[in-house]
Design goal:
By secondary structure, this protein is of the alpha/beta class. The chain has one domain (2-243): 4-Layer Sandwich (Metallo-beta-lactamase, Chain A). The chain contains six helices and 14 strands. A seven-stranded mixed beta sheet has the order 6-5-4-3-2-1-14. Strands 7-8-9-10-11-12-13 form a seven-stranded mixed beta sheet. The protein starts with a strand and ends with a strand.
Length: 244
Amino acid sequence: MEFTVIGHWGAYPETNEATSGYLIEHKSSKVLLDCGSGVLSGLQNYVMLEDLDTVFITHLHADHIADMYSLEFATLILMQMGKRTTPLDIYVYCKDLTKLDFCYPEYVKVHPIDLQATVAIGDMTFTFSENIHDVPSCAVKVSSSEGKCLVYSGDTGYCQSIIEFSRGSDVLVLESSFYNVQKGLNNGHLTAGEAGDIAALAQTGQLILTHLPHYGDHNQLVMEASSHFDRQIQLAYCGMKLTI
């Protein structure tokens, strides 16, 4: 599997960058995890929009879904131009899909994320786990036919479920919204130390810190995570690529 960070910022994008968005490619399949602000523009550096198979949205906060409706219009135009031949599948984790503002069901097929279900796309399978957050939010596990596994946390507070869900993963892409000194500020997000603790308990192969704050020294996040986790830790950045 090929993993590309399209956007990694929390809340809003820095200049010419993006909030949450991650491209997964395996053989001919191309899947986007979250579609936040700035993601649609950045995504086109790596994949043609007509070749995108599926999008998974972990929750409805704007920094994870802001560009989704623009992608719907792009899909409409590409299909009308004959560049895309099939509708785009979008899986969303929320309580009520009818409250979403998608307008063109003939071009975009919207599905609820079922925590008990497995979604197969090409030679990959996608499974899901409930997080702690102030709106319904889920983590996503991507498993390849070769036995490799990546877990993306979405937004979450510290909880046993993300530890169990991530156990034995090759790569854990875990939000790190806060520095340790801010622990307890928001129960729906993680400090870097908590992220490292989760990675250690899950015995993941390597940790990527993402959903980063717009202040402080991000190298401190790595130091704080490394006090719990002694394997490889990397900071996500726009354009980061990893082969799993």
